[in-house]
């Protein structure tokens, strides 16, 4: 349980978990309240025997019986400990009880999101997945998403066919406006670049990843008819 979050806030999540558990068909096996008690060697608070079921626990959450999420968790732990103990002699019941307990433990991980560190870690994982989906989305979809992605540049991967696409498109550049746009993109990585000559040599491997992705986006919009033809499916590491 999370110490610095009030019971009123955590109670909603507690009730949500119980409601979801009650939706599983296996929950019907334990719908009738039954006697539960902690073993004497594992009962530091001397918690007395209880008549427990998920419905009873939810009722106690809402009628003021519990003063904290710790109280709720104590009864949930007692309930699942009891059904695991009751099923030891029946292989089928044992399988049902273990699966039910596994679902409960998985749902309990949601409490970690009340902690800023865990929440941030989860967001970063999801953000990375979303960014990778956007980065590898169909060409018809990409214009609808912003260029600036939240993934850190060092976490991105650039494929060889991306570099080939940039090279092919760069050979088509001739308009002064396009040359100016490219110089603006490259000026941070190549501050001494000159656009006065007829040919400018740029080492793509010397560019930052973010710059390469900006170039990709520029050329895709400038030459939408040009296809990115993947030839090598392995990413090329860019230092």
Describe the structure.
- This protein is mostly helical.
- The chain has two domains: 108 residues, Up-down Bundle (Histone Acetyltransferase, Chain A), CATH 1.20.920; 74 residues, no CATH class.
- It is 49% helix and 4% strand.
- The protein has eight helices and four strands.
- The strands form two sheets. It has a two-stranded antiparallel sheet. A two-stranded antiparallel sheet has the order 3-4.
- α1 runs antiparallel to α2 and α3 packs antiparallel against α4.
- The radius of gyration is 29 Å and the shape is elongated.
Helix coverage percent of residues?
40-55%
Instruction: Name the structural class.
Output: mainly alpha
**Number of continuous helical runs:** 8
The CATH architecture of the largest domain would be Up-down Bundle
Strand tally is 4
CATH topology of the largest domain: Histone Acetyltransferase, Chain A
The topology string of helices and strands comes to: HEEHHHHEHHHE
Main sheet strand line-up: 1-2
Low-confidence stretches: 231-239
Summarize the structure.
The protein contains eight helices and four strands, in the order H-E-E-H-H-H-H-E-H-H-H-E.
Q: What is the secondary structure topology, with strand pairs?
A:
Layout: H1 7-22, E1 34-36, E2 50-52, H2 54-62, H3 69-86, H4 91-108, H5 116-135, E3 158-159, H6 160-170, H7 176-186, H8 209-222, E4 235-236
Antiparallel strand pairs: 1-2, 3-4
Helix pairs in contact: 1-2, 2-3, 3-4, 6-8
List keywords for this structure.
Bromodomain-like_sf; single chain; mainly alpha; Histone Acetyltransferase, Chain A; elongated; 4% strand; 4 strands; two-stranded antiparallel sheet
């Amino acid at each position: 349980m999370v110490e610095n979050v009030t019971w009123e806030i955590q109670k909603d999540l507690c009730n949500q978990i119980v409601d979801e558990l009650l939706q599983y068909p296996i929950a019907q096996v334990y719908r009738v309240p039954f006697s539960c008690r902690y073993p004497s060697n594992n009962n530091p608070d001397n918690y007395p025997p209880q008549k427990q079921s998920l419905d009873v626990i939810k009722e106690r959450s809402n009628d003021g019986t519990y003063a904290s999420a710790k109280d709720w968790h104590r009864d949930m732990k007692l309930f699942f400990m009891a059904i695991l103990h009751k099923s030891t002699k029946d292989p089928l019941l044992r399988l049902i009880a273990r699966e039910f307990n596994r679902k409960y433990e998985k749902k309990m991980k949601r409490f970690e999101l009340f902690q800023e560190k865990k929440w941030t870690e989860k967001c970063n994982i999801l953000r990375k997945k979303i960014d990778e989906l956007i980065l590898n989305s169909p060409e018809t979809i990409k214009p609808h998403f912003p260029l600036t992605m939240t993934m850190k540049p060092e976490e991105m991967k650039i494929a060889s066919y991306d570099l080939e696409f940039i090279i092919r498109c760069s050979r088509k550049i001739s308009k002064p406006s396009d040359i100016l746009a490219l110089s603006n993109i490259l000026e941070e990585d190549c501050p001494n670049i000159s656009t006065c000559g007829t040919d400018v040599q740029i080492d793509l491997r010397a560019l930052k990843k973010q710059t390469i992705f900006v170039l990709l986006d520029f050329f895709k919009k400038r030459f939408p008819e040009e296809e990115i033809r993947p030839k090598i499916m392995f990413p090329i590491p860019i230092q």
